[in-house]
């Protein structure tokens, strides 16, 4: 009932649903946008969790966390590197030096740094807890 009323209002006003992304983007630009936005929004959260898992985990969970972190870093590095040189119609056709700085700042700052902070913070917290327990 509510759904049909909502669609009637939308059709009466003449407005359609807004697109989630610009439909004029070619596949290369859409993929590049996905990689950059997911790297800035979701990768720091995931990498922080993996840093905690690697520092606090024992045995298999530590290995799985380390492998997942390496795969994520390689995905972002190779995606940014490949996007810059594979699709010639991309607006971001920087020089190789600019692409290298994008990889260093983007992957280092948004992917590797959260992992290092979570890993180091967890190790420090575990040492303090172990020292106070003795």
Low-confidence stretches: 1-6
Average of pLDDT: 78
Order of helices and strands: HHHHH
Q: Based on helices, strands and strand pairing, what is the structural class?
A: mainly alpha
Number of H/I helices: 5
Q: What is the CA-based Rg, rounded?
A: 22 Å
Amino- and carboxy-terminal Cα gap: 65 Å
The global form is elongated
Amount of helix:
over 70%
Main beta sheet: strand number and arrangement?
Answer: none
Number of β-strand runs: 0
Beta content comes to under 5%
What are its keywords?
single chain; 134 residues; mainly alpha; 5 helices; disordered N terminus
Q: What does this 3D model show about the protein?
A:
79% of the residues lie in helices and 0% in strands. It has five helices and no strands. It is elongated and about 60 Å long.
Q: What is this structure, in a nutshell?
A:
This protein is 79% helix and 0% strand. With 134 residues, the chain is an all-alpha fold.
What's the helix and strand layout?
Elements: H1 2-13, H2 27-41, H3 43-56, H4 60-86, H5 96-133
Helix pairs in contact: 2-4, 3-4, 3-5, 4-5
């Amino acid at each position: 009932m509510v759904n049909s009323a909502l669609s009637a209002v939308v059709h009466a006003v003449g407005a359609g649903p807004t697109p989630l992304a610009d439909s004029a983007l070619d596949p290369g630009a859409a993929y590049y946008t996905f990689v950059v936005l997911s790297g800035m929004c979701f990768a720091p959260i995931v990498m922080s969790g993996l840093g905690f898992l690697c520092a606090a985990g024992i045995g298999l969970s530590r290995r799985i966390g380390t492998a997942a972190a390496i795969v994520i870093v390689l995905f972002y590095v190779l995606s940014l590197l490949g996007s810059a040189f594979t699709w010639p119609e991309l607006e971001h056709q920087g020089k190789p030096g600019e692409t290298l700085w994008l990889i260093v700042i983007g992957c280092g700052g948004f992917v590797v740094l959260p992992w290092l902070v979570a890993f180091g913070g967890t190790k420090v917290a575990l040492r303090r807890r172990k020292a106070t327990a003795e």
